[in-house]
Amino acid sequence: MTSPRRIATTLGIYVVLAVAAVVTLGPFLLSVMTAFKSPSQFAQEHSLALPRPFGLENFGTLLTGPAQFGSAILVTVAVTSVIVIFQLGFSVLAAYAFARIDFAGRRVLFWVYLAGLMVPNIVLVIPLYLMMVELGLRNTFWGLVLPFMFGSPYAIFLLREYFRGIPRDLVDAARIDGAGHWRILSSIIVPLSKPIIATLTLITIVSQWNSFLWPLVITSGSEWSVITVATASLQSQYNGNWTLVMAATTLALVPLVVLFLAFQKQVVRSITISGFK
After folding, report:
1. Cα-flanking dihedrals φ and ψ of residue 177, to 5°?
2. Gap between the Cα atoms of 94 and 88, Å rounded
3. What is the CATH number of the domain that holds 127?
4. Of 10, 96, 122, 154, which is most buried, counting CB atoms within 10 Å of its CB?
5. What number of CA atoms fall less than 13 Å from residue 167's CA on the CB side?
6. What is the pLDDT along the chain (277 residues), one digit of tens a residue?
7. How many folded domains does the chain comprise?
8. For the CA atoms of 25, 27, 33, 37, what is the dihedral angle to 10 degrees?
9. Which string of b and e fits 247-277 if b means at least 16 CB within 10 Å?
10. Is residue 264 part of a domain?
11. Is 136 part of a structural domain of the chain?
12. How far apart are CA 174 and CA 153, in angstroms?
């Protein structure tokens, strides 16, 4: 029979978890509810009142009106896709070199490169901006993506540690069969590293999808505006129409939720302790 103390402890844990869930998910639910309200309902009724009726006018205004939010979505998708493909590709190559290729100064070079994690991103904004201006890439697509295409210290560190956990016997057996570095990487390392690669893909997508400071600095106007910058500009364009702003945040949130649901199994697998047979 369960003791009263154990029941009270379990109940307390569930209460804390329920409060944490409400605090975490509450702002997102409020944003979605507001997105389906009309401006008059939002102004006259309580913010927690359900939309009556659920309207799509705000989304129509965003996608077909002068806000050009549809263009911002396409730019964000293109920027995120290019950065994810190139950043993960270069990170995998660099991590394999640091983990499996012996060359002079490998350890020193790795730790020097890893020191980039200690540098705040805000410190790099002005130097990167001046470089892009000198290259004539201000307010261009390549100005948005170029600084983030060639790998990241965080991704390289995680991939290197994961690659080092793969048994050396598998790699040595492949070398005996005549496999080179490219064959080992594509046939052994990458297939066994799908969970961590999927996790890094999700992290990179989220970080680039939500990127605000660099797109704000390097672009002007609406031609290369991304979702975050377009959402911020809605407040001034529409005189604080919060139903429209919440509709924009809802549109920006939906792809991330879908990605998380698609990748959640891989994310869980990447952070659990597993062995190789």
Report:
1. -80, 0
2. 10
3. 1.10.3720.10
4. 96
5. 8
6. 567 778 888 888 999 999 998 888 888 888 888 888 887 888 787 777 788 777 788 888 887 776 678 888 899 999 999 999 999 999 999 999 888 888 888 888 888 888 877 778 888 888 899 999 999 999 999 999 999 988 888 888 889 888 888 888 888 888 888 878 888 888 888 888 888 888 888 889 988 998 899 999 998 877 888 998 888 888 776 666 788 888 888 888 888 888 888 777 766 666 554 444 3
7. 1
8. 180
9. bbbbbbeebeeeeeeebeebbeebeeeeeee
10. yes
11. yes
12. 28
Rounded to whole angstroms, the Cα distance separating 172 from 169 reads: 5
Residue 176 falls inside a structural domain: yes
Query: How many CA atoms, within 13 angstroms, populate the side-chain half-sphere of residue 169?
Result: 3
Dihedral, CA of residue 100, residue 104, residue 105 and residue 109, to nearest 10 = -50
Two tokens at 271?
Answer: 């952070």
Give me the amino acid identity at 217.
Answer: V
Q: Which residue has the tokens 């060359």?
A: 103
- Could you tell me the residue range of the domain that residue 230 belongs to? 65-270
What is the spatial distance between Cα 191 and Cα 118, in angstroms, rounded to a whole number? 31
